[in-house]
C-alpha cells in the first residue's frame, strides 16, 4: 500500500488556470475527502493523480515514485461510469477484466468478481450486460470492479451520485471497510455530510482556480 504526495500542483487549460499550488499529503490507509465548488478543479486534480493529465506545474508522488503515466496499482471510479464499462462484456466479465493485470487465473478472477458484485448487492445481475442495467446499477458495477482489483490507491469522483439513498449508505460503509484494509483513497464529493462521514480528513478547495484552503481532521463522536 502507498502514500500519496501532491506537491505544488498547478494546471491550466489553454491559458485558463484550473488548479493553483495544490499541496496535499495522504498517508497509506487514509481516506481524504475533497470538497469544493463546481468547476474548482476537483476532477482535474484526480486526473493529475491518476496520470491521465500531466500537471503543468508541480509533482505527484505515489509510494515514493513520481507519477508519469498511469500507475498499474490504481483504480479510478469516475462520475462517468456509463462510459467506463465495456458493453460487449457481461457485468461479471467487466469486473473481472482488470484482474488480469494482477496475473490472476480465470477461475479466481471470476470468484473475485462474484464476491465484489455480492458486496455491492448485484450478484443477481452478474450475467447481464451493462446496458441492461439502470444508471445506479452501472455505477455499482464500476465500484465493484475497483474493489475487486484491490488497488493500493483508489480515486473516486462523485462515485455515489446516482445511487439511491439506502444503497449509498451501504456503499459508504463498504468503502470504510476497504479503507480499513489499508487502501489509500481520494474521494471527491460536493456533499458535505458525506465528505465528513467517509473522510479521515476533508480538504476544501477554493473557487476556481482551486487551491487547498482548509485541510481538516474529522473526529466524529462514537455512536
Ligand atoms: P470540478 O471537478 O471541481 O467541477 P474540473 O476539474 O472539472 O472541476 O474543471 C476545472 C476547470 O477546468 C473548469 O473551469 C472547467 O471548465 C475546466 N476544464 C476541465 N476540463 C477541461 C478540458 N478538458 N478543457 C478545457 N477546460 C477544462
Ligand atoms: P471469459 O472467457 O470469462 O469471457 P476473459 O477474461 O477471458 O473472460 O475475456 C472476456 C472477454 O473480454 C473476451 O471476449 C475478450 O475478448 C475480452 N477482452 C479481454 N481483454 C480485453 C481488453 N483488454 N479489452 C477489451 N476486451 C478484452
Automatic annotation (TrEMBL):
Molecular function per GO: ATP binding; ATP hydrolysis activity
Pfam families: ABC_tran
Alphabetically ordered keywords of this record: ATP-binding, Nucleotide-binding, Transport
Domain ABC transporter as annotated: residue spans: 4-223
InterPro entries per UniProt: AAA+_ATPase, ABC_transporter-like_ATP-bd, ABC_transporter-like_CS, ABC_transporter_ATP-bind, P-loop_NTPase
CDD domains: ABC_NrtD_SsuB_transporters (cd03293)
Keyword DNA-binding: no
Transport is among the record's keywords: yes
Protein name as catalogued: NitT/TauT family transport system ATP-binding protein
Amino acid at each position: 500500500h502507498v502514500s500519496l504526495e501532491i506537491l505544488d500542483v498547478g494546471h491550466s487549460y489553454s491559458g485558463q488556470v484550473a488548479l493553483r499550488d495544490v499541496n496535499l499529503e495522504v498517508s497509506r490507509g487514509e481516506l481524504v475527502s475533497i470538497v469544493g465548488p463546481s468547476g474548482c478543479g476537483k476532477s482535474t486534480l484526480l486526473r493529475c493523480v491518476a496520470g491521465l493529465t500531466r500537471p503543468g506545474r508541480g509533482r505527484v508522488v505515489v509510494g515514493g515514485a513520481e507519477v508519469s503515466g498511469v500507475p498499474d496499482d490504481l483504480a479510478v471510479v469516475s462520475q462517468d461510469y456509463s462510459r467506463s464499462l465495456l458493453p460487449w462484456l457481461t457485468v461479471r466479465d467487466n469486473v473481472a477484466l482488470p484482474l488480469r493485470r494482477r496475473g490472476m487465473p480465470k477461475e479466481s478472477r471470476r470468484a473475485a468478481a462474484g464476491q465484489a458484485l455480492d458486496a455491492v448487492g448485484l450478484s443477481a445481475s452478474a450475467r447481464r450486460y451493462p446496458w441492461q442495467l439502470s444508471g445506479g446499477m452501472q455505477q455499482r458495477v464500476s465500484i465493484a470492479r475497483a474493489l475487486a482489483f484491490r488497488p493500493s490507491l483508489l480515486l473516486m469522483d462523485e462515485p455515489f451520485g446516482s445511487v439511491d439513498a439506502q444503497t449509498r449508505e451501504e456503499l459508504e460503509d463498504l468503502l470504510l471497510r476497504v479503507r480499513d484494509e489499508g487502501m489509500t483513497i481520494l474521494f471527491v464529493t460536493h456533499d458535505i455530510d458525506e465528505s465528513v462521514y467517509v473522510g479521515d480528513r476533508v480538504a476544501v478547495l477554493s473557487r476556481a482556480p482551486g487551491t487547498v484552503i482548509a485541510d481538516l481532521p474529522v473526529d466524529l463522536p462514537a455512536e
